[in-house]
Write a structure and sequence with these properties.
Layout lengths: L7 E5 L7 H4 L12 E5 L2 E4 L4 E3 L9 H7 L4 E19 L5 E20 L9 E20 L8 E8 L3 H12 L8 E8 L11 H8 L3 E5 L4 H14 L4 E7 L3 E3 L2 H12 L5 E8 L5 E4 L2 E3 L6 E3 L7 E2 L24 E5 H7 L10 H11 L4 E11 L12 H16 L6 H16 L3 H15 L5 H4 L3 H8 L8 E3 L23 H17 L4 H5 L3 E3 L14 E5 L5 E6 L2 H36 L2 H8 L2
Parallel strand pairs: 8-9, 8-11, 9-10, 13-19, 21-22
Antiparallel strand pairs: 1-7, 2-3, 3-7, 4-7, 5-6, 5-7, 11-18, 12-19, 13-14, 13-18, 14-17, 15-16, 20-23, 22-23
Length: 620
Amino acid sequence: MTSSSLPTTIQHAVFPEKHVDELVALYVDAADRDTVSITGRHSVTVSAGSAVSLATYFNAFPASYWQRWTTVQHVTARLALSGRGTVSVMRSDHTGAIHTVDQSAVDGSETLDFRLPLASFVEGGWYWIDLAADSELQLLSLNWTVDEAPVTTGKVSLGITTFNKPDYCVATLEVLAGSPEILPEIDKIFVIDQGNKNVAKQEGYTEVAAALADQLQIIRQPNLGGSGGFSRGMMETLDSPDSSFVMLLDDDVELEPESIFRAAWFARFCVSPTIVGGHMLDLGKRSVLHAFAEVVDRDTFMWGPADRAHERHDFAAQSLRATPWLHSRQDGDYNGWWMCLIPTSVVREIGLSLPVFIKWDDAEYGLRAQEAGFPTVSLPGAALWHISWGDKDDTVDWQSYFHARNRLVVALLHSTAQSPSRLLGEFRKIDIKHLISFQYYPATLRNQAFRDVLNGPEALHELMPTTLQQLRAQASDFAEMQHYPAATIPSSRDGRQTYGEDAPPPLGAAALGLFTARALLRHWFTDVPADLRRQPQAELAKREATWWRVPLLDSVLIDTADGKAASWYRRDRSTFRRLFKESISLNRQLGREWKTLQKQYRDHAAALTSVEAWTETVKR
């Protein structure tokens, strides 16, 4: 143990103030929940004869990441305690093996400092504190501090993009206003309001605006999607001389404000300018870690977790100590813009977001930064709660256009593959799944996406304000996009179908090929019986309406993702034939013109992401 004279705090121990029962596993690990009491934002009390571990997502120290990416050589755990018991400093390695580093007895009111080396963590590992109480033991505070000077100084500005979620935005602002340890790290809070439900008119806004005073600025602009809102946040931050970083935040989130503090200090100590992202926890089930480190497959250009063997980890079911894979350092290609801190020096060098409205803007930015020598670190212990992908249905609505178009654009910009055959093969599979599942609206929009990509990059900025309205307007032309509220859902001939574990997907290339061939032939050559055009054949829950079940039917009711209504999907031979032929033709054309298009998009990339281009777009 030792003491330091002028330490800089880089992480506080924190505890939840609401949703405590649901959140406790993210902050405290105790065999018996009743033996530990959360007594404040930074304090807990352990009952006599009991023990508690801070080997948790929010209260362990991610030593591996600090060793790999920063200039820091040692970190000090500084504890203020009262009572009688034992404090143990623990560490893990990349395998999850646990070791005791140091121990100290506590008897009365004490302050303890443990100076710990950041060494032997290159592959993974954490530090944390365990507490064992002889009589009642209170942890009054735990701060992780460093003695070194940061590489970069300056504050962080927040860029919050919102569209008609003023309640979430005001709640986030209230959390920030009530976080006195965090506000000194923040220069400006830019709320880019792109909706018609204004944040400034939301209940509670007047009070929180008064509390935040000059730190808060509401900026109104047309709806330019996430890429437009976040680009505006970047632009405003570039004009703020006290800001060295911009942190991009989604609107529909619940914030752990300590995460801003940790991300900012981590970025300040990074050896070179580094993008620092926060993880996503599931707002629907708050103890679940939904997104950890994200990568892009360079052949198929699809995003996904760096560790595909472990997804959606529930800390309420399995603690950090009991989960070896969480101790291995994971590196990503990008971080989602639900929470992502970007140095202004990076923005000045590589530009703003690609003008793609939504989808792939964050992934493309990470790839672009990586190619320019700027890494992305998704930092454990920095996170917020966001609605998970499983609670959305954005691959079959208007967003399917952006999923397809933007994925192709990003591949054109960043693919190093000699041929786009694997990528285009994946597109053919997706198109076929849509078509044999009677999803004619997303299939139509995906064909439109192909055509727009083939038209070249020049119109990307011009399309920003108008594409969404055009896509939504087309939905009325498709039967499956009409929603029937629960009380008005038509009755089906065969009633609700329940599969459970039966009818698994076709396994193996031969079985999959045979199933697909049969489905395509059936859809091409057979028409729908007249009675099934008038009445649904069956009903399916959303989770059971899979691409290998729906094609066996002709007319089916399927629950919407939110469970509030149902849509009537009907097979239509003529629509299927037309869209299938279009898809094949466009896919082949893109393959023929790939090299030419690559050059066009790459030649225009710098102009598309420039401040000048975005300034014209936001002022249209």
